[in-house]
Write a structure and sequence with these properties.
The protein is mainly alpha-helical and 287 residues long. It has two domains: 62 residues; 212 residues, MetI-like fold (Orthogonal Bundle). 73% of the residues lie in helices and 0% in strands. The protein has 15 helices and no strands. The radius of gyration is 24 Å and the shape is flat. It starts with a helix and ends with a helix.
Length: 287
């Protein structure tokens, strides 16, 4: 009996060690590009191209970050592009969270004719690639005079179907008894939504916020199409322009990438606890 227990304990330890080894391997694979980007942002271009690659710079070159902010023409338009990305991504995130929570709450907790049909219609829009409607949306934006403006960058993305789906799936698990008790006490529906639903939907709100912010922060195609002036472009458009210019160097390019990555990384780690919780709840709702 003791021998059997020892074998089981050994098998568990071996299995745990294997799991940790695989996690460490996958973690190294995921973090290697980030480590390369950070190290290269502090290196001279010649050192970056040296083989075998040195992961730790022999001499830290902070001038790469100054060059990244100034740009090849010294106009410092990158700072304005960072502000544009923060304004556009932040505004879209806020509107998406609020509107998707409103629609998701209605689809999850209210009964009305055509509710399932409305939900299916919303989900059907997920099957339509943005590239297929991009030109019509651009023409509408152009006719409304929203080209080269924050409105043109923000309005087409103020809500998306996947966020509505996540909100609905999460709010379907919210106890009906709490809502009924609030209604019996005379609480209005807007107050229930603002004082009960939103404060208790932290995990899914964080999930939607992180996914939406990252998606818009990395959005390249639409800003390239709808903006003409350099002052209105966002970070992805600046990176394309910076990398395409003849005299850009690798160290400054990596510095640009590091600066562009910081807001998304900071947002993810600040909301990671809620983000994981929201993903788990989404998986449970899907089942």
């Amino acid at each position: 009996m003791t021998e059997t227990i020892d074998k089981n304990a050994l098998a568990r330890k071996t299995g745990n060690a294997l799991v940790w080894a695989l996690l460490a391997l996958f973690g190294a694979i995921v973090l290697a590009p980030l480590a390369f980007m950070l190290g290269a942002s502090l290196m001279d271009s010649i050192e970056i191209m040296t083989m075998p690659y040195r992961w730790i710079p022999t001499k830290i070159k902070w001038a790469n970050f100054a060059r990244a902010l100034a740009g090849n023409d010294g106009s410092y338009v990158f700072i304005r592009n960072i502000a544009n990305s923060l304004i556009v991504s932040g505004t879209i995130t806020v509107t998406t969270v609020f509107l998707s929570a409103t629609v998701g709450y209605g689809l999850a907790k209210f009964k009305f004719r055509g509710k399932n049909l409305a939900f299916l219609a919303i989900m059907a829009t997920m099957m339509i690639p943005f590239e297929t409607i991009m030109i019509p949306v651009y023409l509408v934006t152009l006719n409304l005079g929203l080209q080269d403006s924050y409105g043109g960058l923000i309005i087409p993305f103020m809500l998306n179907a996947f966020a509505v789906f996540q909100m609905r799936q999460y709010l379907q698990t919210f106890p009906e008894e709490i809502l009924d008790a609030a209604r019996i006490d005379g609480t209005s529906e807007p107050s229930i939504f603002a004082r009960i639903i939103l404060p208790n939907a932290g995990p899914v709100i964080a999930t939607v916020a992180v996914l939406t912010f990252r998606q818009q922060w990395d959005n390249l195609l639409w800003p390239l199409l709808v903006t003409q002036r350099e002052e209105m472009k966002t970070i992805p458009a600046y990176i394309v322009k910076f990398a395409a210019e003849k005299y850009s160097d690798e160290g400054a390019m990596m510095a640009v990438a590091v600066i562009a990555s910081l807001p998304v990384i900071a947002l993810f780690f600040s909301l990671s606890k809620y983000f994981v919780g929201g993903s788990s709840m989404y998986a449970a709702g899907k089942e």
